Amino acid sequence: MIGYYISLALRSLRGTPILSALMVAAIAVGVGASMTVLTLNYMMSQNALAHKNDVLYAVQLDSWDPNQTFNRGDGGNDIPLQLTYQDATALLRSDIPARQVAMHRYGFTVTLEDSEARPFTAETRVSTRDFFALFDVPFIYGGTWAEDADLSPEQLVVLSKATNDRLFGGADSVGQIVNLNGEPFTVVGVIDNWNPSPKIYDLNNNPFADSEELFIPFGLHRRFEMVSWGNTNGWSAGDNGYEGYEARLFGESVWIQYWVELNSAEQKSQYDEFLTGYIRQQKEQGRFPRPLKFALTPPSEWLVLNDVLEDDNRVLGWVSLAFLLVCVVNAIALLLAKFLRKAPEAGVRRALGASRHAIFMQHLIESMCIGVLGGLFGIVLALIGLSGIRALTLGIADRIASMDWLMMLAAIVLAILASLLAGIYPAWRISRTNPSVYLKSQ
Amino acid sequence: MLNMHNIRKSYRTDTVETHALRDFSLSVDEGEFVSVTGPSGSGKTTFLNIAGLLETPTGGEYHLDGQEVSGLSDRERSRLRNEKIGFIFQGFNLIPDLNLFDNIDVPLRYRGFDSKERKRRIEKSLEQVGLSARVKHLPAQLSGGQQQRVAIARALAGEPRFLLADEPTGNLDSLMARQVMELLELINQAGTTIVMVTHDPDLARRAHRNIQIVDGQVSDLRNTIGAEEAAVA
Amino acid sequence: MLELKPMLSALWRNKVAALLIALQLALTLAIVSNATVIVMERIDKMARPTGMDLENIFSVTFKPVDNNYDMAGAMQADLDLIRSLPGVIDASVTHQIPLSGSGSASGYYTEPNQVVGSFTANYYQTDPHFIEALGLNLVEGRNFLDNEMYTIGQNDRHNPAVVIVTKRFAERVFPDESAVGKFLYAGADDHPTQIIGVIERHLGAWPGWSLGGNAVFVPLFVTNKQAHYVVRTESGQRDALLKQVEAQLAERDPERVIKLATLSEQLAESYVGDNLMVKVLTVVIALLTLIVALGIVGLTFFWINQRTKQIGVRRALGATRANISRYFLVENSMIAGSGLLLGAAGATTINEILVRDLSQPVLPLSLLFLCALLLLSVSLVAALSPAMRAANISPAVATRSV
């Protein structure tokens, strides 16, 4: 019977091409607009660490100013989003977490010995060795550095696939030398393509930036007097008894991102205790002047806490859904007009043995056909809308303004739902009209 | 075949209540050809709609083929209408954007026949009304008489026990009207019960029995004319 | 003269169709008015003057290959070279590029050893050329002197003796009096820093920042792993000089990575989000109005078709064409009016939520009224052609049988 209804629907749509086109257009425009915005919001809300959401935690310690809370917009929890260097190195000494990472962003000038290639600046992640295992980063060649390199300066480097392609033409470069700021570094590993968006492991600055091109051990700070190439927030400019770069390392500025992997509830509660103990001990030494507060946040909540989806994105999301609603109301009106014009035919069908239910289904399926067509055109409109957004955002949103198969499927489903919503009342109305009215001759 | 007892039907608008049928009783036997006449507004159409299960009576009993139908659900009534009743209208009521094949196909679709069976029945019924050659034509390409024959073919395709005709010749000239009438008589002779509403006393007389409705009631149950007598008159 | 009562009862019988039109207009008004106020706010925001000679400035960033590079020497040589090029008005060193989204902010106090009650400002470590190099306007006091300029290492501490501030910051910290000659403190510290000059305007590093326009300039060069310059050229020579500077700096010392960008590019990038809001919402407003207009046209046509007979009877009974089209237009305005009234209530409620939870601007009543008026006229225009069609229905329709 469904096949029959579909053939009737297509015949009916062909019968009134202008009205049908208007309805398809209403659904297509509504779906196109909402899918453009919803795709953007969906891509911005991706959690690349969803599969480890139960075991990974971003660590925050409230080491902030006694006179005011750390305040960053309305999405925060009043605790600094990063740690001080001294706290990060202290936490690294705990053996409770299965894995832990202290890190920040930096930049090096890259050159190769005996190469004519122009030097270039490479985004660099300065991190402890667990980075790759904790975030599930795949290696092509080699692997991470040994633990020693995070404690004492060893000039080792892991290259991204793109960097290895650029420097070594994609060959196994483990053991080769790369000059960073003119100093020789030995390649220990090359990772495969890995570029989570949003960049969940470090949401400071642009959350949709590409992941880094180089990775170097955490033990090199003093050797290169590195500072963060991301946000650094401070509150105490006072003298802390250290001079030069040491004053920076032992200062109260926060600039280190810290993640732990805790594989059981037991590990988690042990770690809670450990952090409580650490803050208590620091308080005795005159640090941590605020009430004792820390937070362990899983990836999904970390995205919310960092306001990755901004207010503007939410506004656009709601606007686009309201837009779709107007299109649905519009389609209700047009469908009502179309169906009531065909009321005599429905009367004949009733006389020939169609039940109200059959008439209802026939017209609902006609609405669904409009929905499917609207959905297909809606995908086209959404693709146009997204390319418009890519152009407007000057390349910043290139990776988030693109549709995957799931979103295309969602567009069709949304269109069918919208058309069903639009079709229910008109189909019900025509299935309820008294057939005898239309059977009497003209 | 059809048995109505004390059927009442009233319509209600905002202010007035109109009684279309009052204590209407009628019995039609299997194989009969009954004509129904009466002045405009007497309740003929209401009777036909109730008989054809398009409307439900406000009160009374209605047995169709031995089954009490007034309490049935819409779905059951639709099935009965589909299987046991064929409709013929004054205005033919063919669906204008379907060709003859698809028009006759409509009741068979709701019946749930497979495509082979549907094709067989459509071809057979078109042959019965002599229009096999026009199967791909649209209704608008046919004359009025041909359209009415298609409508009859559509009514017959489901092999109903019971045919309801509402002024079947009202829109036709006399020659075409005669052809249609002869077709109906042929169908009746083959065993189908027919109830026909008409204005035309000549047509009415050609039925086995004539019933007159006045003010929503049967005016004279004894007014029965045999087919032979009608032919003489 | 206007038959309101029969009109209302006709509306009641077609209540679903009337309701659908009214509902569409209500939703549209709610969306369009709120979208308009957001668009207007963003356009105003993007049109704010930056205080700089935006179109004629580009920035230079360089990072040497060698870890132990003579940054101070290179800076002096680079700037001397750039300033010597014909067409260059001036160039200065700055620790961050204005409008780039990268910047520094600090809290300033008015009393020594204060720890609460600071005034936050965006600060720049720059040199005495910055006013000329950015095309700023010094409205009070004086520029830095060459001997007030210091060069320090990355980890060295330095308390500046003098600063120049923007007028906006000056008025916030010292309302109703001149800031020139006043002192600022870094907090928990008693080292005084004197304000020697006031700049008319400088939007700073983050145009979207709530404190944007509060800026402080310090005469200081910190030798770091990279350095930035800003270069201002004669009008129209920016793009040519950008290429020339890139080539000459690379030639002077090839052992470094050099990156150049115009300030207008930086500004466009920092307004990407606002620009996106403006464009997307404008498209939404336009499409929505179009769709609603088409819906009204379609539905009114259908409705008039439904009532052809009734219209014919009216015409037969003596109604003029004008009577008929007026009837439908009045009917349309009644529906539209009630829809827009509902929409106005919806718009206000939605705006309250937008203001409270999503940091959007307040919708002024005048704008809401203007949007409603606009939609009312759109609805009337949309109903015009069907109403004319209705007026052309022949009275003869009435005499045709049912």
Number of strands of chain B: 10
Task: Give the CA-CA distance, first to last residue of chain B.
Answer: 28 Å
Q: Strand percentage of chain B, roughly?
A: 15-25%
The main pleated sheet of chain A reads as: 6 strands, mixed, barrel
| Number of separate helices of chain A | 14
- Our estimate of the beta-strand percent of chain A is 5-15%
Give a summary of the structure in a few sentences.
The complex is a heterotrimer of chains A (442), B (233) and C (402). Chain B is α/β, with parallel strands linked by helices. Chain B has helices spanning 44-51, 74-84, 100-111, 115-128, 144-157, 174-189, 201-206, 227-232; strands at 2-12, 17-28, 33-37, 59-64, 67-68, 85-88, 162-166, 193-197, 209-214, 217-218.
Question: Please, could you describe this protein's structure?
Answer:
- The complex is a heterotrimer of chains A (442), B (233) and C (402).
- In chain A, 47% of the residues lie in helices and 14% in strands.
- Chain A has 14 helices and ten strands.
- Chain A has helices at residues 2-15, 17-44, 85-92, 131-134, 161-168, 221-224, 244-249, 265-284, 299-305, 311-341, 343-351, 356-392, 405-432, 436-439; strands spanning 56-61, 99-111, 120-127, 139-142, 156-159, 177-180, 183-191, 214-217, 257-261, 294-297.
- A six-stranded mixed barrel of chain A has the order 2-3-8-5-7-6.
- Chain A is elongated.
- In chain B, strand 9 (209-214) and strand 10 (217-218) form a beta hairpin.
- By secondary structure, chain B is α/β, with parallel strands linked by helices.
- Residues 221-233 of chain B have low confidence and may be disordered.
- Chain B contains eight helices and ten strands.
- In chain B, the strands form two sheets. Chain B has a six-stranded mixed beta sheet, with helices on both faces. Chain B has a four-stranded antiparallel beta sheet with strand order 2-1-4-5, with helices on one face.
- In chain B, helix 3 (100-111) packs across helix 4 and helix 4 packs across helix 5.
- By secondary structure, chain C is an alpha+beta fold.
- Chain C has two domains: 4-47 and 272-399, no CATH class; 66-254, no CATH class.
- Helices cover 50% and strands 18% of the residues of chain C.
- Chain C is built from eleven helices and twelve strands.
- Chain C has helices at residues 4-13, 15-47, 71-84, 130-134, 167-173, 238-252, 263-270, 272-306, 308-316, 321-357, 365-391, and strands at residues 57-64, 88-94, 104-108, 119-126, 138-141, 150-153, 162-166, 183-184, 193-199, 215-223, 227-233, 256-262.
- In chain C, strand 8 and strand 9 (193-199) form a beta hairpin.
- In chain C, helix 10 runs antiparallel to helix 11.
- Classes of the chains: A alpha+beta (442), B alpha/beta (233), C alpha+beta (402).
- At the A-C interface, helix 2, strand 2, helix 7, helix 10 and helix 12 of A face helix 2, strand 12 and helix 8 of C.
